[in-house]
Amino acid sequence: MPSQVQLVRDLWRAHETGGLDAFFAIAGEDVVWQPFVTGNHVFRGSAELREALAALAERGIRYEPVLHDLEQHDNVVLVHGVLRVSDNGRVDETPLHWAYHFRDGRLQRQSTHASREEALEALSALRLLSDATFSLAEDLAGDGEHVIRLRGELDIESAPDLERVLLRSRPAGERVVLDLAELKFMDSTGLRVLLRARAAADHDRWEIGLRNVPPTIRRLFDMTGVHAALPAETS
Fold first, then answer.
1. pLDDT tens sequence across 139-197
2. Is residue 132 classed exposed, middle or buried when 0-12, 13-18 and 19+ CB atoms within 10 A define those classes?
Protein backbone atom coordinates (compact mmCIF):
# COMPACT_ATOMS: atom_id res chain seq x y z
CA MET A 1 0.00 0.00 0.00
CA PRO A 2 1.45 3.43 -0.92
CA SER A 3 2.56 5.69 1.91
CA GLN A 4 0.50 8.77 2.74
CA VAL A 5 3.23 10.99 1.29
CA GLN A 6 3.16 8.98 -1.94
CA LEU A 7 -0.63 9.21 -2.09
CA VAL A 8 -0.41 13.00 -1.86
CA ARG A 9 2.27 13.07 -4.56
CA ASP A 10 0.00 10.92 -6.73
CA LEU A 11 -2.86 13.36 -6.13
CA TRP A 12 -0.82 16.33 -7.28
CA ARG A 13 0.57 14.45 -10.27
CA ALA A 14 -2.91 13.36 -11.27
CA HIS A 15 -4.15 16.95 -11.12
CA GLU A 16 -1.22 18.14 -13.22
CA THR A 17 -1.52 15.48 -15.92
CA GLY A 18 -5.20 14.52 -15.91
CA GLY A 19 -7.06 17.44 -14.41
CA LEU A 20 -9.84 17.36 -11.85
CA ASP A 21 -11.34 14.04 -12.94
CA ALA A 22 -8.04 12.24 -12.38
CA PHE A 23 -7.52 14.10 -9.10
CA PHE A 24 -10.91 13.17 -7.64
CA ALA A 25 -10.60 9.59 -8.87
CA ILE A 26 -7.69 9.18 -6.44
CA ALA A 27 -9.03 11.39 -3.65
CA GLY A 28 -12.49 9.82 -3.44
CA GLU A 29 -15.91 11.40 -3.01
CA ASP A 30 -16.25 11.67 0.80
CA VAL A 31 -13.42 14.14 1.49
CA VAL A 32 -13.94 17.45 3.30
CA TRP A 33 -12.19 20.23 1.36
CA GLN A 34 -11.07 23.74 2.34
CA PRO A 35 -9.39 25.23 -0.76
CA PHE A 36 -7.83 28.69 -0.86
CA VAL A 37 -9.09 29.43 -4.37
CA THR A 38 -12.70 29.45 -3.10
CA GLY A 39 -11.95 31.71 -0.14
CA ASN A 40 -11.31 28.79 2.24
CA HIS A 41 -14.97 27.82 2.06
CA VAL A 42 -15.51 24.30 3.42
CA PHE A 43 -17.00 21.72 1.04
CA ARG A 44 -18.38 18.47 2.40
CA GLY A 45 -17.64 16.05 -0.41
CA SER A 46 -15.88 16.22 -3.75
CA ALA A 47 -19.13 16.82 -5.67
CA GLU A 48 -19.59 20.17 -3.91
CA LEU A 49 -16.01 21.20 -4.70
CA ARG A 50 -16.42 20.22 -8.37
CA GLU A 51 -19.41 22.56 -8.67
CA ALA A 52 -17.54 25.44 -7.03
CA LEU A 53 -14.50 25.03 -9.28
CA ALA A 54 -16.71 24.82 -12.36
CA ALA A 55 -18.35 28.11 -11.34
CA LEU A 56 -14.91 29.74 -11.04
CA ALA A 57 -13.97 28.49 -14.51
CA GLU A 58 -17.13 30.02 -15.96
CA ARG A 59 -16.02 33.37 -14.51
CA GLY A 60 -12.65 33.07 -16.23
CA ILE A 61 -10.69 32.18 -13.10
CA ARG A 62 -7.93 29.62 -13.57
CA TYR A 63 -5.49 28.26 -10.99
CA GLU A 64 -2.22 26.32 -10.97
CA PRO A 65 -0.81 24.81 -7.77
CA VAL A 66 2.97 24.33 -7.72
CA LEU A 67 4.44 21.83 -5.25
CA HIS A 68 7.74 22.69 -3.57
CA ASP A 69 8.09 20.25 -0.66
CA LEU A 70 6.24 17.74 1.55
CA GLU A 71 6.58 16.67 5.17
CA GLN A 72 4.65 14.18 7.27
CA HIS A 73 3.31 14.67 10.80
CA ASP A 74 1.64 11.49 12.06
CA ASN A 75 -1.50 11.10 9.90
CA VAL A 76 -1.13 14.48 8.20
CA VAL A 77 0.93 15.28 5.10
CA LEU A 78 1.87 18.95 4.84
CA VAL A 79 2.51 20.30 1.34
CA HIS A 80 4.40 23.55 0.80
CA GLY A 81 4.02 25.38 -2.49
CA VAL A 82 2.58 28.27 -4.45
CA LEU A 83 -0.86 28.82 -5.94
CA ARG A 84 -1.00 30.83 -9.16
CA VAL A 85 -4.44 32.27 -9.84
CA SER A 86 -5.33 33.91 -13.15
CA ASP A 87 -8.43 36.09 -12.98
CA ASN A 88 -9.26 37.17 -16.53
CA GLY A 89 -5.64 38.00 -17.32
CA ARG A 90 -4.46 39.20 -13.90
CA VAL A 91 -2.12 36.71 -12.26
CA ASP A 92 -1.45 36.44 -8.50
CA GLU A 93 0.95 34.04 -6.76
CA THR A 94 0.33 33.09 -3.13
CA PRO A 95 2.63 30.87 -1.01
CA LEU A 96 0.40 28.27 0.67
CA HIS A 97 0.58 25.20 2.87
CA TRP A 98 -1.92 22.39 2.31
CA ALA A 99 -2.59 19.82 5.04
CA TYR A 100 -3.93 16.43 3.96
CA HIS A 101 -5.48 14.55 6.87
CA PHE A 102 -5.70 10.75 6.69
CA ARG A 103 -7.65 8.22 8.72
CA ASP A 104 -7.17 4.45 8.35
CA GLY A 105 -5.03 5.07 5.28
CA ARG A 106 -7.68 7.11 3.44
CA LEU A 107 -7.77 10.83 2.77
CA GLN A 108 -10.38 12.36 5.04
CA ARG A 109 -9.88 16.13 4.95
CA GLN A 110 -7.79 18.87 3.34
CA SER A 111 -7.18 22.26 4.92
CA THR A 112 -5.22 25.28 3.67
CA HIS A 113 -2.93 27.55 5.70
CA ALA A 114 -1.16 30.83 5.01
CA SER A 115 2.10 29.78 6.70
CA ARG A 116 3.91 26.67 7.87
CA GLU A 117 3.72 27.95 11.46
CA GLU A 118 -0.06 28.35 11.21
CA ALA A 119 -0.38 24.84 9.81
CA LEU A 120 1.76 23.31 12.57
CA GLU A 121 -0.22 25.18 15.24
CA ALA A 122 -3.43 23.74 13.80
CA LEU A 123 -1.95 20.23 13.83
CA SER A 124 -0.81 20.68 17.44
CA ALA A 125 -4.32 21.72 18.43
CA LEU A 126 -5.72 18.64 16.71
CA ARG A 127 -3.34 16.40 18.64
CA LEU A 128 -4.38 18.02 21.92
CA LEU A 129 -8.00 17.30 21.01
CA SER A 130 -7.35 13.74 19.88
CA ASP A 131 -9.18 12.48 22.97
CA ALA A 132 -12.25 14.40 21.83
CA THR A 133 -13.06 12.18 18.85
CA PHE A 134 -16.79 12.33 18.28
CA SER A 135 -19.02 9.43 19.28
CA LEU A 136 -22.65 8.96 20.15
CA ALA A 137 -24.53 6.33 22.11
CA GLU A 138 -28.27 5.68 22.11
CA ASP A 139 -30.32 4.41 25.05
CA LEU A 140 -34.03 3.77 25.47
CA ALA A 141 -35.11 4.75 28.97
CA GLY A 142 -37.76 2.85 30.87
CA ASP A 143 -40.37 5.52 30.20
CA GLY A 144 -39.81 5.28 26.45
CA GLU A 145 -37.56 8.33 26.31
CA HIS A 146 -34.86 8.01 23.62
CA VAL A 147 -31.57 9.39 24.96
CA ILE A 148 -28.64 10.16 22.62
CA ARG A 149 -25.39 10.87 24.44
CA LEU A 150 -22.80 12.91 22.52
CA ARG A 151 -19.08 12.90 23.24
CA GLY A 152 -16.15 14.83 21.77
CA GLU A 153 -16.42 17.42 18.99
CA LEU A 154 -19.52 18.06 16.87
CA ASP A 155 -18.18 19.75 13.75
CA ILE A 156 -18.28 19.56 9.96
CA GLU A 157 -16.74 16.08 9.98
CA SER A 158 -18.89 14.51 12.70
CA ALA A 159 -22.20 16.35 12.19
CA PRO A 160 -23.36 13.94 9.43
CA ASP A 161 -23.18 11.06 11.95
CA LEU A 162 -25.60 12.85 14.28
CA GLU A 163 -27.77 14.00 11.39
CA ARG A 164 -28.27 10.42 10.19
CA VAL A 165 -29.44 9.38 13.65
CA LEU A 166 -31.64 12.39 14.40
CA LEU A 167 -33.39 12.68 11.04
CA ARG A 168 -34.39 9.07 10.55
CA SER A 169 -38.10 8.30 10.57
CA ARG A 170 -39.65 8.51 14.06
CA PRO A 171 -43.15 7.81 15.35
CA ALA A 172 -45.33 10.71 16.42
CA GLY A 173 -45.03 11.37 20.13
CA GLU A 174 -41.53 9.95 20.55
CA ARG A 175 -39.33 12.04 22.86
CA VAL A 176 -35.64 12.35 21.96
CA VAL A 177 -33.19 13.87 24.45
CA LEU A 178 -29.65 14.87 23.51
CA ASP A 179 -27.34 14.51 26.52
CA LEU A 180 -24.39 16.89 25.95
CA ALA A 181 -22.54 16.30 29.22
CA GLU A 182 -19.42 14.98 27.41
CA LEU A 183 -19.55 17.26 24.37
CA LYS A 184 -16.38 19.37 24.19
CA PHE A 185 -17.04 21.51 21.12
CA MET A 186 -19.74 22.40 18.61
CA ASP A 187 -19.48 24.53 15.47
CA SER A 188 -22.09 26.06 13.16
CA THR A 189 -22.52 22.76 11.30
CA GLY A 190 -23.64 21.09 14.52
CA LEU A 191 -26.02 23.95 15.21
CA ARG A 192 -27.62 23.52 11.80
CA VAL A 193 -28.15 19.81 12.45
CA LEU A 194 -29.96 20.61 15.70
CA LEU A 195 -32.19 23.17 14.00
CA ARG A 196 -33.02 20.74 11.17
CA ALA A 197 -33.94 18.17 13.82
CA ARG A 198 -36.16 20.76 15.53
CA ALA A 199 -37.96 21.39 12.21
CA ALA A 200 -38.34 17.64 11.57
CA ALA A 201 -39.74 17.10 15.07
CA ASP A 202 -42.32 19.84 14.53
CA HIS A 203 -43.30 18.44 11.14
CA ASP A 204 -43.58 14.80 12.22
CA ARG A 205 -44.93 15.53 15.72
CA TRP A 206 -42.15 14.08 17.86
CA GLU A 207 -40.21 15.90 20.58
CA ILE A 208 -36.57 16.84 20.96
CA GLY A 209 -34.81 18.33 23.97
CA LEU A 210 -31.36 18.97 25.42
CA ARG A 211 -29.87 17.83 28.72
CA ASN A 212 -26.62 18.54 30.62
CA VAL A 213 -25.46 21.36 28.32
CA PRO A 214 -21.84 22.34 29.20
CA PRO A 215 -21.15 26.05 29.85
CA THR A 216 -19.12 26.47 26.64
CA ILE A 217 -21.92 25.01 24.52
CA ARG A 218 -24.55 27.00 26.44
CA ARG A 219 -22.70 30.25 25.60
CA LEU A 220 -22.76 29.27 21.93
CA PHE A 221 -26.52 28.69 22.16
CA ASP A 222 -26.97 32.07 23.87
CA MET A 223 -24.99 33.92 21.19
CA THR A 224 -26.85 32.28 18.30
CA GLY A 225 -30.34 32.14 19.81
CA VAL A 226 -30.55 28.37 19.45
CA HIS A 227 -31.77 28.03 23.04
CA ALA A 228 -35.06 29.64 21.97
CA ALA A 229 -35.75 26.78 19.54
CA LEU A 230 -34.20 24.07 21.70
CA PRO A 231 -34.57 24.91 25.37
CA ALA A 232 -32.38 22.82 27.65
CA GLU A 233 -33.61 21.03 30.73
CA THR A 234 -32.70 22.79 33.98
CA SER A 235 -30.84 20.90 36.69
1. 876 677 899 999 988 888 888 999 999 999 899 999 999 999 999 888 888 899 999 99
2. middle
Q: Do residues 107 and 28 make contact, with C-beta atoms less than 8 angstroms apart?
A: yes
In the chain, what is the greatest distance between 2 CA atoms, to the nearest angstrom?
Answer: 68
Orientation angle between helical segments 188-204 and 159-166, nearest 10 degrees: 10
> Which of 168, 180, 172, 169 is CA-nearest to residue 209?
180
Q: How far is CA 208 from the centre of its chain?
A: 24
Order of strands across the sheet that contains 106-113? 43-44, 32-33, 106-113, 90-103, 76-87, 61-73
Q: In what order do the strands lie in the sheet with 135-140?
A: 135-140, 146-154, 175-186, 207-211
Positive or negative torsion for Cα 179, 108, 51, 187: positive
d(CA 79, CA 99): 6
Between the alpha carbon of residue 4 and those of residues 68, 149, 186, the distances in Å are 17, 34, 29
Cα 224 from Cα 230, distance rounded (Å): 12
Instruction: State pLDDT tens for residues 77-97.
Output: 999 999 999 998 899 999 999
**Most confident of the ranges 28-37, 116-125, 194-203:** 194-203
Choose among 145, 149, 160: nearest CA to 214. 149
CA dist 49 and 41 (Å) reads: 10
